[in-house]
Write a structure and sequence with these properties.
The protein has 280 residues and is mainly β. The protein has 2 domains: 12-174, Jelly Rolls, CATH 2.60.120.10; 177-277, Jelly Rolls (Sandwich), CATH 2.60.120.10. It contains 2 helices and 21 strands. The protein has a 7-stranded antiparallel sheet, with no helix packed on it. A 7-stranded antiparallel sheet has the order 2-3-4-11-6-9-12, with no helix packed on it. A 4-stranded antiparallel sheet has the order 5-10-7-8, with no helix packed on it.
Length: 280
């Protein structure tokens, strides 16, 4: 984490080339390239990149343990996530999602020969995201007494104790088949795949077929979306707003803002979104 510019409270287009770009970390923690799409008092939504062979861990100044619920959706490559406090290690590939709850240590690795890109949604957002506040938070985190690189307690009867390991895990890998599927809309129903739904954060995906426009919708929280494939248009019926989004462009809609999606093209288009605190 690092500080980001304050987000306006009006709906707005987030062009990929205009999204603030920052570098997290130092020589000890490793470095991660971040694109800050939007941070409000309700939701933090970014994309980050790990170059081949890169990793992040912790240093005195940068500590990857944070208050919110967090979801990582892998757009390309694969991400290995490691909880150094428990020894858990899990791997998510393209199209899969990693989820963990508040105050979970998480180291990340790219054990591949290609770049890994991940969309991250987190909520609730701390009141102060200044560098000074984040540095104070890092200093207040108790040091790890031991870096655990494996769950050795399960290495005497694997895989027969797999269920015990799953019941005590602090991080989950969510495959597409694990998504909560819902039908949204009455005039033009669409299927929405919800990767993660908690009392603090929702992250999911919807694919629009060519020529489709959705029903008007609004959410019980701030929403940030990114187009991950194809091209869509956003319509704000109450203001007449009309926007075109290409791949990696995003859009922010404050809680309660009515909006709908159009696919004006002849190819499917997909968006990944985060909403906080409530989807409905």
């Amino acid at each position: 984490m690092t500080s980001s510019p304050p987000s306006p409270r009006e709906p707005h287009l987030l062009r990929y080339q205009d999204v603030p770009l920052v570098l997290w970390g130092d020589n000890t923690s490793g470095e991660v390239c971040d694109w800050f799409y939007t941070t409000t008092e309700k939701i933090h939504f970014i994309m980050f990149s790990l170059r081949p062979g890169a990793r992040w861990q912790h240093s005195d100044r940068f500590k990857p343990i944070w208050e919110p619920d967090v979801a990582f959706h892998v757009l390309q490559g694969s991400l290995t996530l490691h909880n150094p406090a428990t020894g858990e290690v899990c791997v998510a590939h393209r199209g899969e999602t990693l989820h963990f709850r508040r105050n979970t240590w998480h180291y990340g690795y790219n054990f591949t020969t290609s770049e890994t890109r991940v969309l991250e949604a987190a909520a609730p957002v701390p009141a102060d995201l200044s560098n000074e506040a984040l540095n104070r938070m890092a200093q207040s985190v108790p040091p790890l007494e031991e870096i655990r690189r494996a769950r050795r307690e399960f290495m005497d009867s694997w895989p027969w104790n797999m269920q015990d390991a799953r019941e005590s895990e602090t991080m989950k890998v969510l495959r597409p088949s694990d998504s909560l599927q819902i039908i949204q809309g009455e005039v033009t129903p669409v299927r929405v795949s919800l990767f993660v739904v908690t009392d603090k954060l929702t992250m999911g995906q919807v694919t629009l077929l060519p020529g489709i426009n959705t029903d008007v919708e609004a959410h019980g929280g701030d929403e940030v979306l990114v187009v991950t494939d194809g091209r869509i248009n956003m319509r704000l019926p109450d203001t007449g707003g009309w926007f075109e989004l290409s791949e990696r462009d995003g859009f922010f809609t404050p809680q309660g803002t009515r909006h709908q999606y159009y696919n004006m093209s002849d190819k499917p288009a997909t968006i990944v979104f985060g909403v906080a605190p409530k989807y409905y």
